[in-house]
Amino acid sequence: MNNVKKALERVLLQVQKPARYTGGEMGSIVKDASKVDVRFAFCFPDLYEVGMSHLGMKILYSLTNERPDCWCERVFAPDEDFEKMMRANRIPLFGLESMDAITEFDFIAFTLQYELSFTAILNMLDLAGLEVRSKDRGWDKLSPVVVAGGPCACNPEPIADFIDLFILGEGEEVNMELIDLYKQCKQEGTDKKTFLIRAAQIEGIYVPSLYKVDYREDGTIASVTPSCGAPAVVHKRIIKDLDKVFYPDNFIVPFTETVHDRAMVEVLRGCIRGCRFCQAGFIYRPFREKHADTLNQNAHDLCNHTGYDEVSLTSLSTSDYSELEPLLNRMLTWTEPDAVNIALPSLRVDNFSKDLMERVAAVRKSSLTFAPEAGTQRLRDVINKNVSEEDVMRTCRTAFEGGYTNVKLYFMLGLPTETDEDVAGIIQLAQKVVDMFYHLPEKPKGRGVNVTVSVACFVPKPFTPFQFEPQDTMEELRRKQKILLDTVKSKKISVKYHDSPTSFLEAALARGDRRLCPVVEYAWRSGSKLDGWNDYFSMERWEDAAQVCGADFRFYANRVRAYDEVMPWDHLDYGVSKRYLIRENQLAHADTTTPHCRLKCSGCGANQLLGGACFG
Q1: d(CA 49, CA 72)
Q2: What is the pLDDT of residue 403?
Q3: Tens digit of pLDDT for each residue in 433-454?
Q4: Mean pLDDT of the chain, nearest integer
């Protein structure tokens, strides 16, 4: 029994939810460490119940463990009570499968899902017993290599000083190439610096230490210069054929409840819509689908192996899947007899139908959520939502006539060009939905309606047409939130809104540069570590960190950016051209929409990643 296991036996019964830290779940993979060449720690910088809901972890965990020469284990951020026990009892951060300290692993890999998880990464490195800065871990010894990937890797600069290399785009192929290179370097006895220089030649690998950033007097970036043969522009990786890509037929089944406790099947990647605020809709391009037969087999295998009684058809916009009706027909042949519920978590207002609703509710009704995003048609045109008020009303009517009485509508506050009339329009639209319910002859009998209005603060993100736009100040967002609440006149409407300080920090980190690395480190050393949770977040800590380090978050969050400004991420290529983003930004300010990809190619450039023509 290793030292971690002995120490865990003493402390686990003193913490909440000890199942987060024990491992041993059904479906977890245990190997003999002495018989593998490479050990890979997949680290999720958040609590177990969040990380175990993440589909990307499930895919890469299973794929990496398919290799007989590699063992991938899961690592999660501990909650505060267990962290205190770990530090008091000198328990290092460990892999759940072996209980070995992750300093014994070759790769320590983090997934970057959310900017506010950056301090959790530093905290996990510290819990492992490692220096948080790459240069302080040294370049002579090959392992461990600290890696990061995921959506926030599209602008990794605010944590560039802490990570040895970033993986841009989809990881199934590039991860395997990276492991192969590492094995070769390990056999040759090369040092980490040599490995990183060679890794930078793999498409999709960004090694920040090989790039020098210079700044202008006004604080903007003057240039980003590569060295040691690193490419001037790093291109993201994609999987061209989703039907041939690896997909697990089994998931780990947790002992404790997780955020999304169900089987998940990925139906497509990318998005055809082009909503101008949506980073995922651009960085995951081009649009690719799996065939219905492949998906039906994936779903059936997962439910058979895990025992889950719900399967989610997951994507950015599942109702845009071209074979949705044939897929549901195939799945209903076994989901209905086995009492398995089909969940469609990403439905669009403009293509929701009675037939689709009835199919989804064949076993039991799930909640229905739709995202108009803006309260007026003008603002919906600005953001290119391509949804009309008639679409919203028709969809809600279909839901109500089908027996639903609870509908959730998602909106954003602080969108570019937004006026007070647009803000009031959010509640006015919700009120129209309530009024329509009570005028329906076929509404559910004896039941009232509840419309939940959920409002997030707009955060401008890289690789979107709104990357040039300022975020509203916190004061302005609070003023608009008051307008929102003052406009509500019905008890049938409930309003939920996000906290503006977290959105402000998210905007600063999302569009930040390397000068924020000291701020992130200072905030962590001051106590920040699980900033995605309100119980742990402190804006005062972050403001103090920025002041001490001489940074101004407003420079990153609240400033209009010129079209010709060098962005911190301009040396990274996600397939969507800056010329296209500028054109879309101009159309937004003209209140003009762009047709979705199936209607007309808008020339974003992403199709070239599949070897096809781009018409921009």
Answers
A1: 19
A2: 84
A3: 999 999 888 777 767 899 999 9
A4: 93
- Cα dihedral across residues 213, 218, 220, 223: positive or negative: negative
What are the beta bridge partners of residue 566? 221
CB neighbour list of residue 614: distance below 8 Å, 6 or more residues apart: 601, 603, 604, 605, 606, 607, 608
* Nearby residues of 224 by Cβ (< 8 Å), 6 or more positions away: 211, 212, 213, 214, 566, 570, 571
Between CA 561 and CA 582 the distance in angstroms is: 11
SS (H, E, C) 266-303: ECEECCCCCCCCCHHHHHCCCCEECCHHHHHHHHHHHH
Mean pLDDT along residues 344-359: 74
- Both tokens of 311, joined, read 């399967």
List alpha helices for 213-287, DSSP H: 279-283
Q: What distance in Å separates the CA atoms of residue 469 and residue 87, rounded to the nearest whole number?
A: 43
Quick: pLDDT tens for 548-591: 999 999 999 999 999 999 999 999 999 999 999 999 999 999 99
Backbone angles phi, psi at 297, to 5 degrees: -65, -45
Phi, psi for 463 (deg, rounded to 5): 65, 30
Say what the pLDDT of residue 355 is. 75
Terminal C-alpha separation, the chain: 61
What is the length of the chain?
Answer: 616
Question: Which H helix or E strand runs over 357?
Answer: helix 354-360
Q: Does residue 492 sit in helix, strand or coil? A: coil
Q: Which residues contact 498 (CB under 8 A, 6 or more apart)?
A: 455, 456, 457
462-473: average pLDDT: 98
What is the reported pLDDT for 10? 84
Write down the H helix ranges in 439-516: 474-487, 500-510
Contacts of 43 (CB under 8 A, 6+ apart): 75, 76, 102, 108, 109, 110, 111, 121, 124
Type of residue numbered 592: T
Question: Quick one: which of 302, 291, 314 has its CA closest to 263?
Answer: 302
Q: How open is the CA angle 253-256-258, to the nearest 5 degrees?
A: 80
Residue 308 has pLDDT above 70, yes or no: yes
Q: In whole angstroms, how far apart are CA 62 and each of 45, 56, 249, 370, 453?
A: 19, 10, 9, 33, 38
For 88-93, what is the mean pLDDT?
94
β-pair type (288-289, 268-269): antiparallel
- Residue 69's pLDDT band (cuts 50, 70, 90): very high
pLDDT value at 323 more than 70: yes
User: Mean of the pLDDT values across residues 36-58?
Assistant: 96
Alpha carbon of 253 to those of 77, 261, 306, 520: distances in Å?
19, 9, 6, 34
Q: Which residue has 């307008």 as its token pair? A: 483
- Pairwise CA distance, residues 521 & 525, whole Å: 6
pLDDT at 616: 40
